[in-house]
Amino acid sequence: MRKLLVFGAMIAAATTAAPAFAQDEITVTGNVAMVTDYVWRNVSQSNYDFAIQGGLDLTTSSGFYAGTWASTIDFNDASDANVEVDVYGGYRFDLGGVAADVGVIYYAYPDADDIDFYEVYGKLSKTFDNVTLSGSLNYDPDNETLFADAAVGLAVTSEFSLSAGYGTYLDGFGEYSGWNAGGSWAVGGVTLGARYHDNDVSGLDESLVFSIGRAM
Predict the structure, then answer these.
(1) Four-point Cα dihedral 201, 73, 162, 68, nearest 10
(2) Which end of the chain is more exposed for a tag (fewer CB within 10 A), N or C?
């Protein structure tokens, strides 16, 4: 029932916004990638193994957007979950010179029972020359979790960038914390990446992730 209510709300919102979209310039983009480990909030979601990922995004000139993204997963538990499919939508706008983003994201696991959930989120970012500072809050009403993270990015050149981030659960999921640092290099139409992740969860290992992806 919860799935139907959430998806119904998303469809209703999209239908309501359709007349506004008709006045906008709409951009559709896609992405595909292969990673040596799918890491989410500094914890492996693929049991430290390879994952294939891809997504599709629709963005309007007025700031509204919607999209979907999927990845292979392996929780190494009894859930038998093999794939994660995310559906999201929101609105980006300028807030006194700061880039703001508010929206909702639904995490679906089609081949597992009753582990789907959704979050509402807010993000802020500001770019100073070639340095970008950002932060976000994600709230899950069903599981009553609140996750906060902050990041800094450095555009060394137009093709090469470095970044680092720190995130923590302020409430729920054991209130763990984690951090990451890495970089990406755009060359020959693809983006190569390397990122180190670690966390303070007992029994979970750190992960060095290599990736190759392409935007379309």
Answers:
(1) -120
(2) N
